[in-house]
Amino acid sequence: MFLVPMGRIVTLQDPPLESPLMRRLLQLVATLAIVATSAVDSAVPSPHGPQPRPLYRLPLSTRPSTHHSWRCSPGARRPGAAPIQLVQGREDTQPQQSTAEGSHAVALADDELYAHLRLSNLQNYQYYADISLGTPPQTFSVLLDTGSSDAWVPAESCSACRFHARFNASASSTFRLLGDPFEGVYGSGDAYGNLASDRLQLGGFVIPSFAFALIRNETGDIPTFVPDGVVGLAFRGMSQTQRTPLLDALVASHPHMDAVFAFHLVKTTGDDDRPSELQSELHLGGFDLSCAGRAPRIAFFPVVPLPGNAELTYWTLPLANVAVLGPKDRRDLLPRRLCDPECFAIVDSGSSLIYAPAQDFADVIAAITRGLSCDVASLVCWNLTLADLPTLSLSFGRGPRNVFELRPEVYADCEDGACAINILNHGDLGDDLFWWVLGDSFLQEFYTVFDIARRRVGVTCDTASDRCRL
């Protein structure tokens, strides 16, 4: 087991960031500094099992939808997008194209089955949500993380948590102390506490008794993180507590709910650091193909255990091939086939960027920067534009089709002739980290569906564009 690599750690003391390129440069510096102090510890398995991811996002503001037709926000939808209603996950695993007439539409008369949550976006790599715990409810901002499985918030008795909302157990009539110890070990600090249970509300969903850790001490940089806590959305196999994760608990409390959620993350442009008015969303209980564009199509891929694991932990997909396609002739610039026999990619909403596996990172960066004026150590290039950079191509599954392309603007930020490459080395966090990690920069490009019941991930694409071949 291993820790998914860390993205940028945001604290209450962070200064304003001045430009997209400067944001990425500061992000790279912060990440590398953390790596230098945490790589060895993160590579060592904990005796308590897999560790959750560190926190580095700002809160998702959540509000249940009041609409009776659940569709992607007009402000976030591409011009000309077909008016497709929410569709549930299907049993077949072939790529699917949906139309307004042919989609598997779902009526939203029963508000207990679906939630349409608005997400606030800050700087394109920070999204966070409010949940409530207890009776009467107490509100906390949390990272919704597909790279971990446990949930925790600070306890009122936590003196180190003074910058965070703290849970007052004595004020809740439905609180129950379970007592089991919890230890969250992170690259930038630790969180210690005990397990408890209480009423949880997320949007319009209520779980009468949800197990979470009540943190009584935070160390390192965690006391100055912006979000109060974390709620994991991965599988039970990586949980330290071995308690029921959020999505399983939701389905247990709402048996007719489809165990599906999806992230629609909108990427904004410009230097404004204020939260964007464009609508990013978390969909619970189904998914909405209209978020994928004018000619939406979805391909489902089975979630598989990582090598050496007997059960599912992360949202891990097999990769048939990775290519770096030249900007002019689209010739593969890599010197060898990377996925021989195969690679694995973890889809992680708790990471801001993309990470390449240790054994492939040098070849990938060499191919991206070939013929350009670049400092490979800092991942910064000069005297170029986005048009001079190649395209990163990912083929999911175990066949030649299902290709999704990440254009330069997805993995690089350019300004005034300088470009920062936002693909980092997974191996910097430990010797046994050999997987691709697809963070928010991937989720911003492709509306992605997570299907718990059917153990699969659906990646969508607008087939009217040149970003995919399905």
Structure summarized in a few sentences:
One of its GO terms (biological process) is proteolysis. With 470 residues, the chain is mainly β.
Give structural notes.
- This protein is mostly beta strands and 470 residues long.
- The chain is 11% helix and 33% strand.
- The chain is built from 5 helices and 28 strands.
- It has helices at residues 20-43, 246-253, 358-369, 408-411, 440-445, and strands at 86-87, 96-97, 115-121, 127-133, 138-145, 151-154, 176-186, 189-202, 205-218, 229-232, 260-264, 280-284, 287-288, 296-302, 316-325, 343-347, 354-356, 373-375, 380-382, 391-396, 403-406, 412-415, 418-421, 423-425, 436-438, 448-451, 456-462, 468-469.
- The strands form 4 sheets. An 8-stranded mixed beta sheet has the order 24-17-25-16-15-20-21-28. It has a 6-stranded mixed β-barrel with strand order 4-5-10-6-9-8. A 4-stranded antiparallel beta sheet has the order 18-19-23-22.
- Strand 4 (127-133) and strand 5 (138-145) form a beta hairpin.
- The longest helix has 24 residues, at 20-43.
- The radius of gyration is 21 Å and the shape is globular.
- The two termini are 33 Å apart.
- 51% of the residues are buried.
- Mean pLDDT is 77; it is low at 1-20, 23-70 and 73-110.
- Belongs to the peptidase A1 family.
- Disulfide bonds join 381-419.
